[in-house]
Structures are given as structure tokens and as C-alpha cells.
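Page 37, continued from 36.
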């Protein structure tokens, strides 16, 4: 059966590459013996759609063209399916091999492996894997645990608007967001989506772990122009307080909050099991401090203290 399917895919690819005009499904069925042997029109349609998707997954660019009667025709233009010669030295091949090992997520792992196989078939040199033996315990990984990652990755690739429920750190319940997704980026172990928030009419960055429920695609084109460079990391750094513009004074329980201690510009023992820390910060320190619960008390500034209290009250309300 595997050989029969491979032969059927090859025949379909040759038909689509060899034609100068779009071929209808009826013409393709008449040209490929395996399609003529299909038990019914419904079986043929299912087989054809699967084969077409398989060829696209293998990298063949198949165009769908409608004629004047509204019937669909298919062809694969040679200029769209021809790549220039790929020349890589051993170091470049090793870098690609290492990059292919980074992904743990199933879809990307398969795509990366398939891409390497195609490059090797085209003559890419086999490179020694520096992580295969003595360094096998030290392998690069990009974790992808969020269910929203895959549909958002595909939406970014295909330029499709999406809708999802998003829970802000200060909110007890999620809100619906309509977003035109631009790009995904991993920063400090968390994935973020940058895009155009249609409801707010502005660029926004969303943390994937705060997306609840399913990501749903929407029809239609983007309404906002996609920028040439999307500075996701810089935006997240600013929101997370990496760009320090102010200084906060907090009380921290002794023996706790070591990430805060590493950021402190000054530490003073207060006694009774508490220390006083000066923390340089920008936007977003309030959300971070809430994570330490009763081990942290904000002394100043007053607006930061109020923000932390508001967040704690929102969490308490559930």
C-alpha cells in the first residue's frame, strides 16, 4: 500500500508540474490510474484531497485557480517549485543539525527532521554531531507546553486573524481578544505573541501561558500593516521591569525571594526575620512581587504598593 501511495503521489506531482494550464479534478482523475480505480466519487475526492495535502507538506507549491465557470483547477508552476543550488560547508551543516534538535514540539520536530533529510539528499555534507557522544546530557531545548503555540504559529505563518480568551495578571476572569498575529518569541522560558489587538487598535504582546481555551481562526485579511521588525523581546523586557527607570523599597522575609535579592542594589537587615531591599525596576514589578505572596511588603513608592494590593485582592476574589 505504501508503494501504491508513493506511485500515486508521484503521478499527481508529474501531472501538476507538466501542465501549462490548471487541470480540473475530473482531468486529473482521468490521467491517473489509481484515481480511476476509486470505488466512488466520494472516495476519489477524499483520496485526492489527502494526496494534495501530502504533496504540499512535502514542499510542492500547488496553485488553485478558478475558471470562468467557477470550477477549480490545479497546477504546480516549475518556477515556483525550483530552488537555487544550496551549498553549505561542514560548519554550516553542523549548525543546522544542532538547530534541528532544539525543538521538542512534535510538529516542528518532524518539520526540522524532514528539512535536514531534503538538504542531505541535495548534497549537504554530513557533519559530526558534537553533542552525540560525550556531551549527550547537554542538549539545547526550547520547551513548548502551551496548547496555543501550534495554532498561533500557523496563524502567524498564514497571516490569519485569531480570537482567544486572555487572562491578564490583574484580572480574575479572561477576556476575549481579536488579534492579528505577527510573530512568536521565547524569552526566559516563556512564549510571547506580538500582534495587532483589533479591539484596542494598538500593538500588544501576549504571554501564551495566559491564553485560556482554544485559539480560533477568523477569515479575512489583516487590517494593520505588519512592521518589518517586531521587537517582542524589547517590549517584554520593558514590561517585566528589565529597563529600570525607578527604584522601589521593599521588605522581604529572610531566607526567601532569592530572585529579588539578585536584583537588589542594596540590602539591609531589619531584624525579626525581615530584610529591606532597594530594587531598580521599570514596568511590571508589581506582577512579579505578587508571586512572592506574604513574603514581600512594598514600602515605597505608594503607587507600586497600591498596584500590588490591587493584584492581591483580585487573586483573593478568584
Amino acid at each position: 500500500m505504501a508503494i501504491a501511495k508513493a506511485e500515486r503521489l508521484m503521478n499527481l506531482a508529474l501531472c501538476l508540474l507538466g501542465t501549462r494550464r490548471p487541470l480540473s479534478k475530473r482531468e486529473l482523475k482521468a490521467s491517473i490510474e489509481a484515481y480511476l480505480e476509486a470505488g466512488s466519487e466520494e472516495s476519489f475526492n477524499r483520496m485526492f484531497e489527502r494526496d494534495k495535502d501530502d504533496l504540499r507538506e512535502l514542499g510542492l507549491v500547488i496553485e488553485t485557480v478558478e475558471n470562468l465557470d467557477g470550477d477549480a483547477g490545479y497546477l504546480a508552476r516549475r518556477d515556483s517549485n525550483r530552488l537555487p543550488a544550496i551549498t553549505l560547508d561542514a560548519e554550516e551543516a553542523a549548525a543546522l543539525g544542532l538547530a534541528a534538535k532544539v525543538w521538542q514540539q512534535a510538529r516542528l520536530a518532524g518539520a526540522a527532521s524532514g528539512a535536514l533529510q531534503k538538504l542531505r539528499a541535495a548534497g549537504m555534507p554530513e557533519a559530526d554531531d558534537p553533542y552525540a557522544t560525550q556531551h549527550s546530557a547537554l542538549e539545547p531545548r526550547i520547551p513548548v507546553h502551551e496548547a496555543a503555540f501550534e495554532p498561533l504559529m500557523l496563524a502567524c505563518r498564514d497571516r490569519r486573524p485569531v480570537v482567544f480568551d486572555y487572562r491578564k495578571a490583574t484580572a480574575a476572569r479572561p477576556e476575549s481578544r481579536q488579534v492579528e498575529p505577527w510573530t512568536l518569541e521565547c524569552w526566559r522560558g516563556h512564549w510571547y505573541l506580538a500582534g495587532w489587538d483589533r479591539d484596542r487598535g494598538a500593538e500588544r504582546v501576549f504571554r501564551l501561558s495566559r491564553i485560556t481555551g482554544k485559539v480560533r481562526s477568523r477569515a479575512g485579511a489583516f487590517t494593520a500593516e505588519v512592521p518589518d521588525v517586531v521587537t517582542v523581546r524589547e517590549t517584554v523586557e520593558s514590561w517585566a521591569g528589565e529597563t529600570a527607570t525607578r527604584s522601589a523599597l521593599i521588605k522581604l522575609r529572610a531566607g526567601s525571594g532569592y530572585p529579588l535579592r539578585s536584583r537588589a542594589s542594596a540590602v539591609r537587615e531589619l531584624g525579626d526575620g525581615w530584610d529591606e531591599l532597594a530594587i531598580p525596576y521599570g514596568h511590571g514589578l508589581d506582577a512579579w512581587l505578587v508571586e512572592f505572596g506574604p513574603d514581600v511588603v512594598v514600602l515605597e513608592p505608594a503607587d507600586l504598593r497600591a498596584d500590588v494590593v490591587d493584584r492581591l485582592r483580585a487573586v483573593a476574589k478568584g
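DSSP finds eleven helices and twelve strands in the chain. Flag for discussion at group meeting. The longest strand covers residues 175-187.
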